[in-house]
Write a structure and sequence with these properties.
393 residues, alpha/beta, Rossmann fold, 2 domains, 5-stranded parallel beta sheet, 12 strands
Length: 393
């Protein structure tokens, strides 16, 4: 009895010592750009905290779990104004944070990654969708949470082909981002057996359309612009620059559905998504921010939760330990999409289902039934291992 009591006292002392130990502090940086990009629709204007709000929620969630593991998470935010030195800002943020969530354009992300190449700093890209960041311009210190253009295009193409809408009229904007999206759509059409019957380029000539005569001009312009096309099933628009695509629905010469940058849109997240427990995070986000959760918010949240998952599993806040765990084949993270998300080891891109939405409802989720893969059906979205140009060094 005495020996049992001594043993119990000893165990109690060890437990108390563990609880009394200093907590593990995990400091996470967030590097984004100041200001917001305006959208054509007045009801879709993004908030000033678009993206960062998701990271804040993830840190709150991590701290909820961290209470039981003696872990504390902190978020330091930095927004860059136009013309600011991104490499210098990234280095300053890395002095205090071993892990950084980024929401930067492709060129800025590369500058930040190269500036931190010799450090142990881990970057999680939650914003840039450029395929080249995962291919010829990939960096070994960057994990990509945001989907690529090719993943988005493949998700859309699978559904259109599943619907037997295989004849596409492709309309492309005149800006560089529009052309990159068009490249991804052409690749997807070839990959899944669709046919682009004609391509048209919509030139951005500037000018304001929110005028008294704007609606009249649009109503006359769009039917004429789409007139005379060969027979097609669906008009697919590549308009990342937000110039014309939103004006296409109900205004084309032929009564056809619209997809791509308007109509049926592929995205990583949407405020209408309510399956697989998504309503839980949607409600919590609305309560905190008095607005709906966007794709950028969700991508930043997922990045933050990946950090939380790695630290809880390894009981370490060391960036190298976190990074090594994220790259392990048994790593996965839950993100309210019906299956756990994993990392592609050849280019550090997060595998994920893509939602197809119409602005009010989730129409479908890709990958679609029947599109098979020898390893993961999620690898039918985007460039697969045999196609990659990435060489991680």
């Amino acid at each position: 009895m005495i020996r049992w009591l001594i043993g119990a006292i000893g165990l109690s002392f060890v437990a108390s010592s563990a609880l009394a130990a200093d907590p593990i502090d995990i400091r996470v940086g967030y590097l984004g750009q100041a200001g917001i990009k305006s959208k054509l629709s007045l009801v879709e204007q993004p908030s000033e905290n678009d993206g960062i709000a998701g990271a804040r929620l993830a840190i709150e969630d991590n701290n909820t779990t961290g209470k039981f593991l003696n872990q504390r998470f902190f978020l330091e935010e930095m927004r860059l104004k136009e013309g600011e030195d991104v490499a210098k800002a990234a280095a300053a943020l890395a002095d205090r944070n071993g892990i950084i969530i980024t929401d930067l354009p492709a060129d800025s992300l590369l500058k930040a990654a190269d500036a931190l190449r010799d450090r142990k700093t881990v970057l999680l890209n939650s914003g840039a969708i450029d395929d080249r960041l995962r291919e010829q311009d990939c960096r070994a210190n960057v994990i990509h949470v945001a989907p690529t253009r090719s993943m988005l295009a493949d998700a859309l193409a699978q559904y259109l082909v599943w619907k037997q809408w295989k004849r596409w009229l492709l309309v492309v904007g005149s800006h560089e981002a529009d052309k990159l999206y068009a490249d991804a759509l052409r690749r997807a059409a070839t990959r899944f057996g669709a046919k682009i019957v004609q391509e048209k380029v919509f030139e951005d000539t500037g000018g304001a359309r929110r005028t008294d005569s704007g609606v009249t001009l649009i109503q006359r312009q769009m039917p004429v612009f789409t007139q005379g096309a060969p027979a097609y099933d669906v008009l697919v628009a590549a308009d990342e620059s937000e110039v014309f695509a939103s004006y296409l629905p109900y205004r084309t010469w032929d009564p056809r559905p619209i997809a791509g940058s308007a109509g049926l849109v592929p995205t990583s997240w949407d405020a209408a998504h309510d399956q697989w427990g998504a309503i839980q995070i949607q409600n919590r986000f609305v309560k905190l921010n008095s607005r709906r959760m966007t794709a950028r918010d969700m991508q930043a949240w997922t990045a933050g939760r990946m950090i939380g998952e790695a630290t809880s599993r390894t009981n370490s806040g060391d960036p190298k330990v976190v990074f090594d765990f994220l790259k392990r084949p048994d790593f996965s993270v839950a993100a309210f999409k019906g299956q756990r998300l994993t990392l592609r080891d050849w280019n550090l891109q997060l595998r994920q289902p893509i939602l197809l939405v119409d602005g009010r409802m989730v129409v479908s989720v890709s990958p679609q039934e029947g599109f098979l893969h020898q390893y993961s059906e999620l690898d039918t979205l985007g460039l697969d291992r045999p196609e990659t140009k990435c060489k991680l060094n």
